[in-house]
């Protein structure tokens, strides 16, 4: 069964060779690698086309206009022909058994699988191993992280990544998946996520945190969530805003949580203080 791996990239010449090689070096070989170049102005196009000439599994597409990440993902998956879907970034790496382990789990009937992953620095040195949480906590924060795969049926049902939600396109997709499909975690590290000053998640950390909290509040207002899930989610947004240094926003979520469940809020505060 074939896997479609989409690799969106914008000015990724620094690390993209390593990223491509990590896909080509998989123990599972039935895949296509679809590189979507979002109008890069560096050597990205030259690097990607070189790989495409050498390996027929590599497909290179260049956007005519800059579409940003969600638009590039939609371009890539729009031409995908695999039974399973995943995507990666130009500065991250798949471990050699990534595809094999993910596919084995999906073949058991799971619709969406995600795994632990390494946090690496600019030089590729492992800083920590990130253990992912159960999908039950998805409305509190993005438990899926960077290492995942899902079936073509999921893609056909959920549809496209929301191009109006740049910076939240992945999280929004996972939330929509969870509403209709099973999600299962694998507590084995299969991926390496690089943290560096040029990474989008580093440059726009505070913006992403604020947008995530606002998105969660909108979903809670619209969706059918249990009381326990609502109050836990609201409490986690207080902590999220504090970590991001957004104290006024944290106070706002404190009020939301207080109105939703004052007893729960007080118990969680006591729990935090007593630690």
Kindly summarize this structure in a few lines.
It contains eleven helices and nine strands. The chain is of the alpha/beta class and 275 residues long.
Structure explained in plain terms:
- This protein is α/β, with parallel strands linked by helices and 275 residues long.
- It has eleven helices and nine strands.
- Strands 1, 2, 3, 4, 5, 6, 7, 8 and 9 form a nine-stranded mixed β-sheet that branches.
- Helix 2 (44-54) links the parallel strand 2 and strand 3 (58-62).
- It is globular and about 65 Å long.
Low-confidence stretches: none
Number of helical regions: 11
What general outline do the C-alpha atoms trace?
A: globular
Instruction: Supply the helix-strand structural class.
Output: alpha/beta
The overall pLDDT, averaged over residues, is 95
Helicity range of the residues? Answer: 40-55%
How big a fraction of the residues is strand?
15-25%
**Largest sheet descriptor:** 9 strands, mixed
Distance N to C terminus: 49 Å
Give me the count of strands: 9
Based on CA atoms alone, the radius of gyration comes out at 19 Å
Helix and strand sequence: EHEHEHEEHEEEHHEHHHHH
């Amino acid at each position: 069964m074939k896997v479609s791996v989409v690799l969106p990239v914008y000015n990724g010449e620094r690390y993209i060779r390593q990223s491509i090689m990590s896909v080509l070096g998989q123990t599972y070989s039935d895949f296509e690698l679809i590189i979507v170049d979002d109008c890069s102005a560096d050597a990205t196009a030259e690097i990607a086309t070189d790989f495409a000439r050498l390996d027929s599994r590599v497909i290179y597409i260049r956007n005519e206009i800059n579409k940003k990440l969600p638009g590039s993902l939609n371009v890539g998956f729009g031409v995908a022909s695999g039974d399973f879907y995943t995507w990666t970034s130009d500065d991250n790496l798949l471990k050699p058994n990534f595809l094999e382990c993910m596919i084995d789990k999906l073949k058991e009937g799971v619709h969406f699988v995600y795994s632990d992953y390494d946090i690496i620095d600019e030089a590729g040195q492992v800083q920590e191993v990130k253990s992912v949480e159960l999908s039950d906590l998805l409305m509190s924060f993005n438990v899926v992280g960077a290492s995942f795969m899902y079936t073509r049926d999921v893609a056909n049902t959920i549809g496209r990544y929301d191009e109006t939600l740049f910076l939240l396109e992945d999280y929004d997709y996972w939330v929509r998946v969870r509403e209709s499909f099973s999600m299962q975690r694998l507590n084995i590290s299969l991926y390496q996520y690089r943290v560096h000053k040029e990474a989008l998640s580093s440059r726009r950390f505070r913006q992403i945190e604020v947008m995530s909290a606002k998105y969660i509040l909108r979903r809670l207002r619209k969706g059918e969530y249990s009381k326990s899930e609502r109050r836990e989610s609201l409490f986690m947004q207080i902590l999220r805003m504090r970590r991001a240094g957004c104290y006024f926003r944290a106070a706002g979520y404190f009020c939301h949580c207080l109105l939703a469940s004052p007893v729960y809020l007080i118990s969680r505060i006591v729990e935090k203080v007593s630690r």
